[in-house]
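W.,

You were right to be curious about this one. When I first looked at the sequence I had no strong expectations either way, so I just let the prediction run and decided to look at it fresh. Below is the sequence, 254 residues in total, followed by the output.
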Amino acid sequence: MATNNESNNTVQENDFSVNRSLAGTAVESSVEHSDNTNAASHARLLAQTGGGSGGDPFILMSVSGVTSYSFGIDNTDDNLVITDSTSPSAGNDLWSMTSSGERTLPLQSAFYAYLSGSPTNVTGDLTTYTIAFDSEIFDQNGDFNTGTYTFTAPVTGRYYLSTTHSSDNYNAAAYTQTTGFIETSNHSVIIYTYTGASYESISGTGLYRFSGSTITDMDAADTAYVTITVGNAAKTIRVLGTTNYTNFTGALIC
């Protein structure tokens, strides 16, 4: 064991630590190469483990008693990851990249919800109908509520939201307008508006499909849901369910 108390450096069995408790000062460790004449004059930090059956090489950042993040190689799958734990293989991956350069955000908010049934007589007389997206294909991070048909933003950011709805029981000459909205806490966004002249059924089946999307700002805990209105005639419109016909999708993009 070698000790240098003047510099606060301790070397013990190849472990090296720098400790300081003086308030208002920073502790810094550096690796510096001062040569500026050769492109091979690198400054390099090396974290290396023994092999495929060994541990993870990584950097650990921690606020004592609060949180820890690690950045390095998860030796179980060889991905470069950022995790919320004390080693790459011991926590949830927050960011991951394969050796091929494919990157994912495993906990990034993203959802695909859809209407499973086909409710009838929901609008047609300008009644506002909130589409009951009661089923999901996926809900990464668990931010969509199939009981309230509502997405709740987990963090403040910019969100991509998109919706499609399919309906029938139209008489295009009588129903003069169909409008879809994505209703958020900050905005009521008109996603599409069709007039009687622009209606066109799918292959002449009498089924009409409407879709649109937006990028919108949302604060943490803001909500988003979808409404439609059809008018001005009788309340006869049916909205058709299943994953392809009527859905609501979204993701945090930045």
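Here's what jumped out at me. The chain has two domains: 2-104, 110-252. And, maybe more interesting for your project: Residues 1-7 have pLDDT under 50 and may be disordered.

Coffee later to discuss?

I.
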